[in-house]
Amino acid sequence: MASAQTRYASDIGMPRERMLFETVKGFYDSLGITRHDIGTFIFASNDFQDGRTISNVFADSPVGAYMKDETKVEADGSFAYLYGVMRILSGHYDTALIIAYGLGGSQFRPYLVMDYTMDPSFTRQVGIMNELVAAALQARAYMMKYGLTEEELAAVAAKGLRNAAANPVQLRGQANATASDVLKSRPLYSPLHEFHCYPPTDGCCVMLLASAKRARELTRKPIWVAGIGHDLDTYYLGEKDLAVSKSAQRAAAAAYKMAGLSDPAAEIGVAEISAPFAQQELILQEALGLFPEGSGSQVMGGGLSEIAGKLPVNPSGGALGAHAFCASGLQRIADAANQLRGEAGACQVKESKLAVAHGQDGFCAQQNMVTVLSS
């Protein structure tokens, strides 16, 4: 497994085709390969964000996928990654290139695109609900159920901003961010402020998956997929407890079973969780079994998820530092792999042999993908 990312931006200053060409061509050159070394190409894109149907059709040529086996997943890059793993395991391919990209900073509004995932016969038509409203309800549900304060919720966002400041590819970071800084940012839907929420982002992440034999030929530091799991909930928010994520629990259980883990909180050394809103980091780290349910106050108060903490969560800064629509989950996997290689720079945590990475899609993390990576 190898990867490359753009430097994320609010406006990357070039068409998506140019962005894809420069990222993928540079990636090929760094590995000493060409497009002919790729068995199958899998895009993560969205027709709404590209403003055209079959949105991958004009992305084929810039990445070298023309006249090659290629397909698309209309969702987050972590699900394209899951599809790539399945294709490798089928035995029909020994390499798969995952290409996930979004221009949600400059060319479309991510919140508007997310509106189209709502129930079309009632919720969407009423016009009250949107992604921000849903996130605010989710945050309030966790706070009321477990006694989390607004300052503690803001501390989650401040940690993300501090970590993102040390990561050169992130769009938004603040080296000395505090909970007070978060609470002073622009108020949105209570209890959320601007810094609790992801920044609209342009960017691209690509990843090469390979069979065991091919991986050893391509690199001296292969990262292995030890376990993987996927699950989803209903998209009707009123039918579930927003303070927990049952689908993330089930996805994690499947991944841990495949990886042979019995005590993930003790065995995993670092976690990269796709949390576009601050409260989701707490909800999802608990769903993944990394901390006890409802322990957000204790985790933040004790610094347990900091880079130097007991179990670092999102040392990269996570989605609060950059959230390129369709690419964010693949970014989490790439960042987790970099941690295991010892190539995370100023975001590096203590040495670890196991990492967990998470991707999501839908309102309030409706759909979840969890993978366990091993060095």
Describe this structure in words.
By secondary structure, the protein is an alpha/beta fold. The chain has a domain at 2-108 and 200-217: Peroxisomal Thiolase, Chain A, domain 1, CATH 3.40.47.10. Helices cover 37% and strands 17% of the residues. It has helices at 16-31, 47-50, 60-63, 77-89, 110-115, 123-126, 131-146, 150-165, 179-184, 212-218, 246-259, 264-267, 278-287, 296-301, 328-341, and strands at residues 2-5, 40-44, 70-73, 95-103, 200-210, 224-232, 270-272, 323-324, 354-361, 367-374. The strands form 2 sheets. Strands 1, 2, 3, 4, 5 and 8 form a 6-stranded mixed β-sheet that branches. Helix 7 crosses helix 13 (278-287) and helix 8 crosses helix 13 (278-287). The longest helix has 16 residues, at 16-31. The model has no long low-confidence stretch (mean pLDDT 95).
SSE inventory with pairings:
Blueprint: E1 2-5, H1 16-31, E2 40-44, H2 47-50, H3 60-63, E3 70-73, H4 77-89, E4 95-103, H5 110-115, H6 123-126, H7 131-146, H8 150-165, H9 179-184, E5 200-210, H10 212-218, E6 224-232, H11 246-259, H12 264-267, E7 270-272, H13 278-287, H14 296-301, E8 323-324, H15 328-341, E9 354-361, E10 367-374
Parallel strand pairs: 2-3, 2-4, 5-8, 7-9
Antiparallel strand pairs: 1-5, 4-5, 6-10, 9-10
Helix pairs in contact: 4-15, 7-13, 8-13
